[in-house]
Every structure is written in C-alpha cells, then in structure tokens.
Amino acid sequence: MINVEFENILKQAKSVGMTAILKEKGTYTGEEEIVPDLVIKNISDLKLYI
User: Fold this and answer.
1) Would you list the DSSP string of 1-50?
2) Can you give the C-alpha Rg of the chain in angstroms?
3) pLDDT tens across 3-36, in order?
4) What pLDDT, on a 0 to 100 scale, did the predictor assign at position 1?
5) What torsion, rounded to 10 degrees, do the Cα atoms 38, 16, 50, 35 define?
C-alpha cells in the first residue's frame, strides 16, 4: 500500500508527465481505479486551479 499525499502526487505527476490531479489524499493499494477530480493539459496550468 502506498500513502499518497497531495504534494507527492504533484511531484509524481510532474515526473511522469501526468495531468490527472487528485484533490483528496488517501491510501491507495494500486488495485482500485483512481478517478481524477481534474485533468489538465499542461502541468504549468495547475496554478490556475490552486
């Protein structure tokens, strides 16, 4: 199990070029499907949503 926090999500998203952002932090086993609260095209646009 991986404990995923918001800051770690941002770091991981940047490192792999992901654009899915989760608003809630929690524990994910990696088996369940994670539905993002927001999907952006460019990680630099994130500042518009924070």
Assistant:
1) -EEE-HHHHHHHHHHHT--EE-SS-EEE-SSS----SEE-S-GGGGGGT-
2) 11
3) 556 667 666 666 555 555 566 666 656 666 666 6
4) 44
5) 20
